[in-house]
Predict the 3D structure of the following.
Amino acid sequence: MPSRKFADGEVVMGRWPGSVLYYEVQVTSYDDVAHLYTVKYKDGTELALKESDIRSQSSFKHRKSQSSSSSPSRRSSSRSRSRSRSPGRPAKGRRRSASQSREHKEDKKKTIQETSLALPVLVLSKPSENNTKRYNGEPESTEKNDTSCIILEQKLKPDLEIKRVLEQYSLRSRKDDKKKEEIYSEKKTFMAVKPIEKVPTKTKELEFGGRIGTFMLILLLPATVFYLLLMCKQDDPSLLNLPPLPALESLWDWRVFGLFLLWFFLQVVFYLLPIGKVVEGLPLSTGRKLQYRINGFYAFILTAAAIGVLLYFQFELHYLYDHFLQFAVSAAAFSLALSIYLYVRSLKAPEEELAPGGNSGYFIYDFFTGHELNPRIGSFDLKYFCELRPGLMGWVVINLAMLLAEMKIHNLSVPSLSMVLVNSFQLLYVVDALWNEEAVLTTMDITHDGFGFMLAFGDLVWVPFVYSLQAFYLVGHPTTITWPIAAAITVLNCLGYYIFRSANSQKNNFRRNPADPKLANLKFIPTATGKGLLVTGWWGFVRHPNYLGDIIMALAWSLPCGFNHILPYFYVLYFICLLVHREARDEHHCKQKYGLAWERYCQRVPYRIFPYIY
């Protein structure tokens, strides 16, 4: 194994990926497996570089000195003498070259060339403040509304000028020129097609309270679900009225567990059907793109048809309500078994397939956050499947079961207006997610978080059994609302949905094709990664407008339950805490990824989620 050349904390010169420019960087760590140095630029940007892309400052300065005095004639003569020498008189001991013949004919061009010869020296010099803005992807004006092709042309314009000067008045051999041309070609391709990605290294900054915090969450999350469900079963679901603990044997039923497995594998079958388009996800750290089949909405239609057949043959769907706690226990047991399987298989996964946030080396932390980024069995992507299928569709089926249970228990011919509103609002949310299934490929869950207990329990237990809490509450605690109140709540939900959907559509469309003429009116701040930060539309209003829309909808889902108890408002309170925490994670990752560009964006858009508040 080769020994490392540069020590942690050492200040060296690092080559910017895909270019010939070197900048002063500080070595922060070294990966013994991938043989990559993690270096930090002055603006805070961190990148992983090979040893061949790093040079010591002493050798770098020596090369700079050579570049600035490489012409013997310029060392022996002053600038004014060089300009006044007759172009037809060659230096002593040297024959007249072809370039000198051209100088004789075009004396004015020679003067221009002499002035421009300083440009290659600037490439190797320490970047000034303006140069720093340029390499970080920031023009003098921080806002742009041009297409990505125009931005690329502006980025490459100084390099094109350098290349033209070097071709006309070369100070290197033909072999060096050819090598430089290849490097320049590599830079152009890199900047136009592939954004800068980091190869996964050891996770240093632990989230969720580190090892102790994640261990507590593994215990508290299931306990919270069971506590909420037991509270909803009580006549008085006050916070101080603790529910009695049920007998352990009453929590498990093999028939219920069998029905849960039947539901899960039915969704697997629907997922594997060769219907729907196949799309590519975002590039991984290796540059590879995984393929995903987009057929969630078709699976939802097939699921709805299956439920309709069961109701036609008079299957008692309110069986879900009668055994709701047992279904939650079965889902929790399955998610725990799935999490153990995911962690065990991740131990044999290659280094480049590990999650950037779940590779700490600590068992509890990696088990909770997820050690492997995209665990797959053949083409079957486990994380992507669980993200939208069994839990999200199960949420709709549970809501329908609660509606039927309310009608049966209270002898109603039609469901209550409150129950209709809750079912309708949440059905719209689920259908929207499945219809726009492709958008989930750009979320943090898919691109950054590994698949471990956090997502497995969240997708299979938390989403279907906590998000349906309002409908479950209304079965045992019916609430009557008037039509004007129902209309006002509906307007509030539509407002939240409009903000949520239009903001997400703007973001997803811009990420997929920033050169789309339909997006020409959007202004953005270009970054060193090749991506842009939107500063107009909803993303110029607050930094996370989709979170704002989500919170408004969550409030509309809880209002039909009235104000007798705080229990049905647990969802909106939890959701605010969740999104504020996720926003903090986003801020941290974006600061590391975009550097100065993110600071300028924060100055342009000061509010995070709530305008003029937070």
Remarks:
- The longest strand covers residues 22-31.
